[in-house]
Design brief:
The structure is a single chain. By secondary structure, the protein is α/β, with parallel strands linked by helices. The protein has a domain of 114 residues: ATPase, nucleotide binding domain (Nucleotidyltransferase, domain 5, 2-Layer Sandwich). It contains 14 helices and ten strands. It has a five-stranded mixed beta sheet with strand order 3-2-1-4-5, sandwiched between helices. A five-stranded mixed beta sheet has the order 8-7-6-9-10, with helices on both faces.
């Protein structure tokens, strides 16, 4: 049996298939990011999922693609956790941009983007990915992501730059105050996930001019920095993966049109399209 895993910072999908790629089951856990989490933490969280633990000894290979897995040291954090659980399996750990690339590929080179809790982009020729402006995380970068828009919303709330009705609703729905926000952002773990949680409020009020402008400007900034950096950006399709891309696709298309970018696929989750690529290129070696 083979596990194909797509893990963002908020949630992870674990797709169990046979060696020929036939669907068996899918499991869900919280998201993982080794930049902020240890091997012990990841291991213990996975062990909370009874379904995964029930099939652990039946897994022969794991293809794991995760947020924060951009370097060998971070990949090792996840690798260590996975080897403790899937003791009989060959473990492969790589960056989540590879998941986006595999899901986006249609037989020709493309630009693939992640817009979820965080954001990133790469050029994919079918085999290798090439980055120009690699993601900087939620403090310095993550333009157009859930954490980015959460920061924008909370800043506007604290600076009282939102309509009075919106300010009141935010305060009532999330029980917000300055001290609580500062604590969650600067002192508690998984601040990026906390920030991204506010995108559901933006989605609910997306037709308000203040949010229409916020979304357009955020997507344009992402595209300008992370797509226009590729010399080929007007010659190939640009594909998007992630919940933020999916739910705010109209803002992406509007900003992309203004920049001369051809939008291709926009997928909430890459997991099943990833499977198609793995069946063709990887599973024969599993």
């Amino acid at each position: 049996m083979i596990l194909l895993v797509d893990s963002g910072s908020t949630k992870s999908e674990w797709l169990l298939v046979t060696k020929s790629g036939e669907y068996v089951n899918i499991y869900n856990t919280i998201g993982f990011n080794p930049v902020f989490q240890s091997s012990d933490f990841i291991e213990n969280e996975i062990k909370e999922n009874g379904g995964l633990m029930g099939i652990a000894d039946s897994v022969d290979q794991v293809f794991y693609y995760g947020a924060g897995c951009s370097g060998e040291s971070y990949q090792k954090v996840v690798f260590t956790a996975l080897t403790r659980i899937f003791r009989k399996a060959k473990i492969n750990v790589d960056h989540d941009i590879m998941a986006a690339a595999y899901a986006s590929y249609e037989g020709t080179p493309c630009i693939c983007c992640i817009l979820g809790t965080g954001s990133n982009s790469a050029y994919f020729d079918g085999r290798e990915v090439y980055s120009v402006n690699a993601g900087l995380g939620y403090i310095l970068g993550d333009e157009g992501s859930g954490s980015y828009f959460g920061k924008k919303l909370l800043a506007a709330f604290l600076y009282k730059q939102l309509p009075d009705a919106v300010l009141s609703e935010l305060e009532a729905e999330f029980h917000l105050d300055r001290a609580g926000i500062i604590k969650m952002v600067y002192q508690e773990p998984r601040a990026n996930v906390y920030l991204a949680s506010f995108t559901r409020f933006i989605a609910k009020h997306r037709d308000l001019p203040v949010f229409e402008q916020m979304l357009y400007e955020g997507m344009r900034e992402f595209l300008h920095i992370h797509v226009c950096c590729f010399p080929e950006y007007k010659e190939v399709k640009t594909h998007f993966v992630g919940s933020i891309a999916f739910y705010f696709s109209d803002s992406i298309r509007r900003a992309a049109a203004d920049l001369g970018i051809e939008v291709g696929q926009i997928m909430k989750s890459p997991i099943h399209r990833m499977l198609d690529y793995h069946i063709q290129y990887f599973f024969q070696n599993a």
